[in-house]
């Protein structure tokens, strides 16, 4: 797996062994960032269910100011930290070993705010909708902020309160949805 564009283009990223982490396929990651365009430049990004960090590191390579990575699997967290160091972004990435929903609540208590949220949970387990629901009430995505969700192609993902679905594309078995925050960020 390699970083596809930006400052660290071509650098290899490791993925933990075993089936606990499903990294975003190269073509899906490229499509996400092509759709995001310059929105990621200078952005504060939250990478939920970060795994090895491929999405967040791609955001850093393309000009994000900082990324908070949230991953609960200890092996994946170790690989993520190694990937951040190897790509030269350790100073712009903060890694949390935590459950994603708990991390959202903690970030809300701290009054953190993000311009872009990348959410790539396990497919078919209802995590995408739960994360969207907690995000919609958290206040960490301000007006005009963007949430990008990956889900299994057969999953039905409803639009959370306070958001508008602006894009939906399928890539093989992966469904990518884009939601824009329309209100003041508080659900």
Give an overview in words:
It is a single chain. With 187 residues, this protein is α/β, with parallel strands linked by helices. Helices cover 29% and strands 27% of the residues. The chain is built from five helices and seven strands. Strands 3-2-1-4-5-7-6 form a seven-stranded mixed β-sheet, sandwiched between helices. Strand 4, helix 5 (127-138) and strand 5 form a beta-alpha-beta unit. Helix 4 packs parallel to helix 5 (127-138). It is globular and about 40 Å long. It starts with 25 loop residues before the first helix and ends in a 6-residue tail after the last strand.
Spatial order of the strands forming the largest sheet: 3-2-1-4-5-7-6
Structural class: alpha/beta
Instruction: Please give the count of helices.
Output: 5
What pattern of helices and strands is seen along the backbone? HEHEHEHEHEEE
Number of strands: 7
Strand content: 25-35%
Alpha-carbon distance between the two ends:
37 Å
Q: Determine Rg (CA atoms, Å).
A: 15 Å
Which residues sit in consecutive blocks of at least 5 with pLDDT less than 50? Answer: none
Major sheet size, sense and barrel closure:
7 strands, mixed
Q: Please, what is the average pLDDT?
A: 89
What percent of residues adopt helix (DSSP H or I)? 25-40%
Approximate shape: globular
């Amino acid at each position: 797996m390699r970083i596809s564009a930006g400052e660290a283009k071509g650098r290899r990223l490791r993925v933990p062994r075993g089936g606990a982490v499903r990294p975003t396929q190269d073509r899906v990651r490229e499509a996400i960032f092509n759709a995001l365009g310059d929105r990621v430049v200078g952005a504060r990004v939250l990478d939920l269910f970060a795994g090895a960090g491929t999405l967040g590191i791609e955001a850093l390579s393309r000009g994000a100011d900082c990324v908070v990575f949230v991953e609960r699997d200890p092996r994946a967290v170790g690989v993520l930290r190694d990937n951040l160091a190897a790509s030269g972004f350790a100073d712009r990435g903060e890694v949390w070993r935590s459950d994603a929903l708990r991390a959202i609540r903690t970030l809300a208590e701290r009054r953190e705010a993000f311009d872009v949220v990348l959410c790539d949970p396990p497919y078919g387990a209802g995590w995408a909708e739960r994360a969207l629901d907690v995000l919609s009430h958290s206040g960490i995505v301000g007006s005009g902020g963007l949430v990008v969700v990956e889900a299994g192609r057969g999953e039905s993902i409803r639009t959370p309160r306070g958001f508008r679905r602006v894009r939906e594309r399928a890539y093989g078995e992966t469904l990518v949805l884009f939601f824009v925050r329309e209100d003041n960020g508080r659900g």
